[in-house]
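To whoever picks this up:

The parser on our side crashed when reading a file containing two proteins. I've narrowed it down to the boundary between the first structure block and the second sequence. Both blocks are reproduced below exactly, byte for byte. First block:
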Amino acid sequence: MKDEIAYLLKRHRLNCGYSQQMVANALNVDRSTYTYYETGKSMPSLSTLMVLKNLLNIPYEELLSCLDRGGAIETEKLKDPTNTEAVDKERTDTSHITLEKKETYGLPKDEQQLLLYFRRMDDSDREKALDYLKNIVKENY
């Protein structure tokens, strides 16, 4: 299951155009900790997975399906699931992944980081942050 979660995280992070460091910053962990999640060396806690779900726009269905089956992610076609060498190679080779770059991909890194922090907030904190930013803009511009 760790490998499936690792692949899911990497695929969605790349799809959003985020670096590992950006995601690690948003999680308040070292980059190496997040890298371990993506390489399958360690498994994020359920609460961390829920934060990552929001940060990386992972659909609930896809995450739950991956966790429930502990197996293949339906949206990815693996050539020969009985050949572990081919499966491992396919998971580490990202050149075959067709990325639909999300709206964040073209943003500068600082704006992407801001969006990651925003996605970590609950609804009331998001509202406060937006009000705060509106006040700053009104005062300075």
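<<boundary where parser fails>>
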Amino acid sequence: MNKKIIGRKQEISKLQGLYKSGKPEFVAVFGRRRVGKTFLVRELLEKKFAFDLAGLAKGSMKEQLMNFHFTLKRAADNKFSVPKSWLEAFEQLISVLQKSGKKRKVIFIDEISWLDTHKSGFLTALEHFWNAWACSKRDIMLIVCGSATSWIVNNLINNHGGLYNRITATIELFPFNLHETELFLKSKNIHWNRYQIAEIYMILGGIPFYLEKLKQGKSVSQNIDNMFFYKNASLKKEFQNLFVSLFDHAENYEKIVEFLSSNRKGLTRKEILEKAKMKSGNKITTILNNLKYSGFIRAYSQPTKKTEIIYQLLDSFTLFYYSFLHKNNFRDEKFWTNTINTSQHNTWAGLSFETICLLHVKEIKKKLEILGVQSSEYAWRSNNSEQNVQIDLLLDRADNIINLCEIKYSKLSYTITKDYEEKLREKIEVFKQETSSRKTIHLLMLSTFGVKQNKYSGIVQNEIHLDDLFAETD
């Protein structure tokens, strides 16, 4: 295994297996921008490439075809003229591949959605290339990659035309979990404790491109100031670039995400429409689906309202942006250092730790020894607005147990007081009454350093500590 690649064991195994399959493969690799898709494919297979094309951001059809021409010329010193269409371009590619001496011809097309400009005919040409030629060649492996996950899902994976069911394998790349983030930092000779790594994760969200910018020898706060708040900070404008690169009419997506950032438990479609002052229809459906495909939000339903979908923002970097960057005047270059221990920082940290827990359900289930037990995970809120009862996370298990999870972020062991114990009992009772659930309710405390034992702590049946979220689950 390539020592440069951190984690990604399943993805590496799958790609290597597809390369050795001995049959034509059409592989779609997708995931959030900056998550490491291109790096993974190149580290594993670059020496096997017969052709390697990357789309041009915001490039016109003419520019994309010119880029194709130059790329093909580098791959095989050919005398082709610049193609006038994508059909001609793929015919030129076929001619080059037929003369290639490679036993397994890997074609890598990166940022594929950028090639599909308006009325370019790119998708039709790709379909013809695969169906009329490549799909019958046992030595061909076509890998397409892109950050615009919604384009890949809608146009390739869920294609209902000529590319229907043509994708032979999909690989969705997710951000690093806490375990992988820790390994990545150690590979950079950055040795922080897990509390500090958790704070970095709350900000950067396990995105390798962002983590790569961290500098050894500096504290967490120094690094964050350098990356976001200094005059020429490298990630100061990352959020704007992120959405513009992924979505047409990015302002509509940012508007929805901003509303969700202010409602951390999530909003229903109706609530989103009311806040955004939009009409129900295909437009909002497309936006929500694309945000979900791209890994920014999740959609879940509650047991009492299974037809009502709640949309919740789970991208740590986006949540950080709306908490600290969105309306920041950037006059304080040591903003993050000066914000530590303020109520603003502590409130954000508490809510962001909830997000970390939601992203590490697999690790939670491992600690509970229920990895093999089917379960659904969701947040819950009471239908009675006067009671204002909310539950951070529920694990609704097939073995007739529901773990009602309370999430607490603190620098020391968490102390359950008499008042808090009464609130917990009230939550459990309200949940039982409103859901009419016959399952056994176990209270699970998810905290950084555990619950301090006292006469009120007996209400807790199970505990998960921050260290448990760093478990290796593969």
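After patching the parser it read the second block fine. Residues 335 and 396 are 41 Å apart (CA to CA). The chain has four domains: 9-173, 178-236+330-345, 239-326, 370-470.
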